[in-house]
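User: Can you predict the 3D structure of Bacteriophage phiJL001 Gp84 C-terminal domain-containing protein? Sequence below.
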Amino acid sequence: MKEISLDLKAHMEGEVTSLATCWEVIRRDGVTLRFTDHDRDMTVAGAVYQAGQGYSRSAMKTSAGVAADDMEVSGSLSLDGLPAEALEAGLFDHAEIRLFLVNWQAPEQGTIPLRKGWIGEVRWEDGRFAAELRGLSDALRRQVGALYTPECRADLGDGKCGVNVAALEVADRVLSVRDRQGLGLEIFSGDWNGLIGGLVTFTSGLNAGRSVEIEGVDPASGEIFLFTGAPFEMAPGDEVLLTPGCDKRFETCRNRFSNSLNFQGFPHIPGTDALLEVVDD
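Assistant: Sure. Here are the predicted structure tokens for Bacteriophage phiJL001 Gp84 C-terminal domain-containing protein:
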């Protein structure tokens, strides 16, 4: 049940209303952005909500069951804080979002909460963006449980794995740049194949603080190739931290990391070929 102030309730019951929609985005890095579909900036509870060129939203629906109440918000990339580069860098992935109504003529009357959830899929093109807003009930659609698989279910270095990843990380610098997905390393001379599936974390340059998965390597040229490409342009001299990868096979866990006791898979589980075997008479 939504609770609103008596003044706002009286305004809602009047013949004419002056309501505007506001939304607040709280990114995972702690940055908070605020926008409104009103034609000028508004101050609500001491916070400024930016008008810019506004935004639009899809129709909202509310279900009585556990079905997720999803909607979509779209707007202009010219809004401060919403450049295409930030969206491409994934800064808004899984950000918390709050949507509410307010009387733009009297914001002190309070707000009417509409939605609270997280940003899902984000798209952008032709100077505009569209973000999917997933409601709180979206968590009920997620499958929770463990699977029996031949591969390890843990991630390298997590609590179940137990490998000290920090001891395996190698500091390096970018020697050359092919494109946003290919870069040459200046120092590395270790196990190149061991980097596949690992991470390159930029510690300086435009991508500082960003981590990208390593898809492949070319020891002959001293290059590594990124799975999705760096969010921003790389440059020779950028400092990076290389974290090895793990293909989650038992042999890798035993031979490369000496960690077979913590292996979280079932390497001897029968596969589909065993199910299709014909029993000899």
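Confidence is low (pLDDT under 50) at residues 64-68. The chain has two domains: 6-140, 169-243.
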